[in-house]
Amino acid sequence: MNSIRLDDRDIAILATLSREGRIAKTDLAARVNLSPTPCWERMKRLEKAGLIRGYRAEIDLNALAAHVQVFVTVELENHRAENFQIFERIIARMDEVTGCWAIGGGYDYLMQVITGDIAAFQSLMDGLLESRAGVRRYYSYIVTKPVKETAPALALLKG
Predict the structure, then answer these.
(1) For residue 59, what pLDDT is reported?
(2) What count of other Cβ atoms lies within 10 Å of the Cβ of residue 154?
(3) Mean pLDDT in residue range 73-89
(4) Which long-range contacts does 19-27 make (Cβ < 8 Å, 24+ apart)?
């Protein structure tokens, strides 16, 4: 947990930026009811504290190219620290894996994979099974349509 103290305006800045990363600084300041200079200073403080890790464009993959998105649960053969480290190093080098989380309760990891088609996904998984990653088994869940994708409700997280 970060030790920086946040007030309601800091949360409002973070929430606005998480929804609209390219918002003009003057528009951001107006939305959070600050003048531009204090808003800019707060934003820089939040960046320096590591709360803002970067700014990205949200790409509409459907408009860009045909693709398949798959969520994969993974169970490793062994559960020593070294096994987790090997798996994580291998996954870090796989561009098709766009998200990977260590999880508790039955499986070891949840991965988000995006490939051009099912054959490319299967080839990726075959390669993973043949590697030193130590995968015992995996289950694939193909995304048929997005239902909800939003930034987190940051105001609900403020303690």
Answers:
(1) 86
(2) 19
(3) 97
(4) 19/150, 19/151, 21/55, 21/56, 21/57, 22/55, 22/57
